[in-house]
Automatic annotation (TrEMBL):
Residues 29-394 form the Aminotransferase class I/classII large domain. Pfam families: Aminotran_1_2. Its cofactor is pyridoxal 5'-phosphate. Its EC number is 2.6.1.1. It catalyses: L-aspartate + 2-oxoglutarate = oxaloacetate + L-glutamate. This is Aspartate aminotransferase. GO terms for molecular function: L-aspartate:2-oxoglutarate aminotransferase activity; pyridoxal phosphate binding.
Length: 400
C-alpha cells in the first residue's frame, strides 16, 4: 500500500481554523473575533492609504523582478533597523547590527530558531505561558527545546510578574528568553517600564539571551517609538538581543510577508559573521525574500512625508481599537455590574484575554455565533461600535 495511506489528518490551526469556521457559518449575526487582523468600523479589511501611495510610486518606477540578495533589500534593512532602534542609535553607528529581511514575523522567527539550533545548541528557549500558539511549532520544528515561564495570572487577569521572574531566574544560565516586544499575544498584558528594567537586569545577571518578537510595533500605543521601548532598553543596558520584526499588522501587509530577523551584538566583526550565517540558513529555507512588500515598507519609512502619513494612519487604527475597548467595558459594566471589567481597558493591542473558559467559549460560538479562540482571547480589531452591545450580551450570558 502507499506510504501516504499512513498520513494522519492534522487538526486545523487553532487560530486560522476559527476563520474557516466563521466563513462556513450562515448566521446573519456572526462575528469573527478570532484572527488578529485589523478591520475598519465597517468590519472590512483595510489597506492603508500610504501603502496605496507607495504602490503607485513603485508601479511607476517600473523596477525589475530580479532576485534580491539573500539578506534582502538594503533600503528595507536600513528602514527596519531604524524603526526598531531609532535612526541615531549608537549600535547602528557602530555597525553591530545584523539584519536579514525575512518572511514576516513567522519566517524571521524560524530563521532565528535555525540560528539557535546551530549556534546556541543545547540551550532552551523559554516562552511565556500562554503565548502565540505558533511559537511552539516554530521552535519545535527546528528541534529547539522550549519551556514555559509563568506569565498570566487568572486571579487578577493580569501579569504574574513574581512567577515570571522566578522562572527566568530558575532557567539555566545562558537560556534564551522569548519576550513580546509590546502588546502581548494573546493576553494584551505587558510588563510596565520598571518591570521591563528588572527583567533586563535579570537577563544580564543570568547571561540569558533575550529574543524579542516584535509583531505589533505601533499597535499598542499608536506610537512606533513607545512600542519599541522594551527592546531599546535591553540594548541600551548592553545586552545582545535577537529580534524578529513583522509588518503584517502595523503596515497591514499581512499577505506580502514583510519582516526581518535582527541581531544586535557586541561588535561589527561579530555582526558580519552572524549575518553570514543567517544568510546561510535563509538560503536553504527559501533562498531570498520577496521584493514587493519590502519596497513598500522601505518607500514609506525612508520618505519623511509618507512616514508621517503612516504614523497618522497607525494612530487611527490603534485609536479605533482603544475606542471599542472603552465601549465594550462600559457595556459590560452596565449589563453585569457585579464583576470587575477593568481588564478590558488595561490590556493593550489588538487582543483582550477575557478569562472565558473553553466551555464558555463554546457557548459564545454555538449560541451567539461569535468566533474566537478556545483560550478566551478576542480580537478587538474585529469589533465595531454597532456590535459592542451584542458581544457584551454574549459575554455576560457566557460568564453567568
Ligand atoms: N508573533 C506574534 C506574537 C504574532 O501575534 C504574530 C501574528 N499573529 C506573529 C508573530 C507573526 O505574524 P506574521 O508572520 O504575519 O508576521
Amino acid at each position: 500500500s502507499s506510504p501516504f495511506e499512513q498520513v494522519e489528518l492534522q487538526a486545523p490551526d487553532p487560530i486560522l481554523g476559527v476563520s474557516e469556521a466563521f466563513k462556513a457559518s450562515k448566521e446573519p449575526n456572526k462575528l469573527n473575533l478570532g484572527v488578529g487582523a485589523y478591520r475598519t468600523e465597517e468590519l472590512k479589511p483595510y489597506v492603508l492609504d500610504v501603502v496605496r501611495k507607495a504602490e503607485k510610486k513603485i508601479f511607476e518606477a517600473k523596477e525589475n523582478k530580479e532576485y534580491l540578495p539573500i539578506e534582502g533589500l538594503d533600503a528595507f534593512r536600513k528602514a527596519t533597523v531604524d524603526l526598531l532602534l531609532g535612526p541615531s542609535h549608537p549600535a547602528i553607528k557602530e555597525a553591530r547590527v545584523a539584519a536579514l529581511q525575512s518572511l514576516s514575523g513567522t519566517g524571521s522567527l524560524r530563521v532565528g530558531a535555525g540560528f539557535i539550533s546551530r549556534f546556541l545548541k543545547g540551550r532552551t528557549v523559554y516562552i511565556s505561558n500562554p503565548t502565540w500558539g505558533n511559537h511552539r511549532n516554530i521552535f519545535g520544528d527546528e528541534g529547539v527545546k522550549w519551556e514555559y515561564y509563568r506569565y498570566y495570572d487568572p486571579e487578577t487577569v493580569g501579569l504574574d510578574f513574581k512567577g515570571m521572574m522566578e522562572d527566568i531566574s530558575a532557567a539555566p544560565d545562558g537560556s534564551i528568553i522569548l519576550l513580546h516586544g509590546c502588546a502581548h499575544n494573546p493576553t494584551g498584558i505587558d510588563p510596565n517600564p520598571e518591570q521591563w528594567s528588572q527583567i533586563a537586569d535579570l537577563c544580564i545577571k543570568k547571561k540569558h539571551i533575550p529574543f524579542f518578537d516584535v509583531a505589533y510595533q505601533g499597535f499598542a500605543t499608536g506610537s512606533l517609538d513607545a512600542d519599541a521601548a522594551a527592546p531599546r532598553l535591553f540594548v541600551d543596558k548592553g545586552l545582545e538581543v535577537m529580534v524578529s520584526q513583522s509588518y503584517s499588522k502595523n503596515l497591514g501587509l499581512y499577505g506580502e510577508r514583510v519582516g526581518a530577523m535582527v541581531m544586535i551584538v557586541g561588535s561589527k566583526d561579530v555582526a558580519e559573521r552572524v549575518l553570514s550565517q543567517l544568510k546561510r540558513i535563509a538560503r536553504a529555507m527559501y533562498s531570498n525574500p520577496p521584493t514587493y512588500g519590502a519596497r513598500i515598507a522601505a518607500e514609506i519609512v525612508n520618505d519623511a512625508d509618507m512616514f508621517g502619513e503612516w504614523k497618522t494612519e497607525m494612530a487611527g487604527m490603534a485609536g479605533r481599537i482603544n475606542r471599542v475597548r472603552g465601549e465594550l467595558r462600559a457595556a459590560l459594566e452596565s449589563k453585569y455590574p457585579g464583576k470587575d471589567w477593568s481588564f478590558v481597558t488595561s490590556q493593550i493591542g489588538m487582543f483582550s484575554f477575557t478569562g472565558l473558559s473553553p466551555a464558555q467559549v463554546d457557548n459564545m460560538t454555538k449560541k451567539w455565533h461569535i468566533y474566537m479562540t478556545k483560550d478566551g482571547r478576542i480580537s478587538l480589531a474585529g469589533l465595531n461600535s454597532a456590535k459592542v452591545g451584542y458581544l457584551a450580551d454574549a459575554m455576560v450570558d457566557s460568564f453567568k
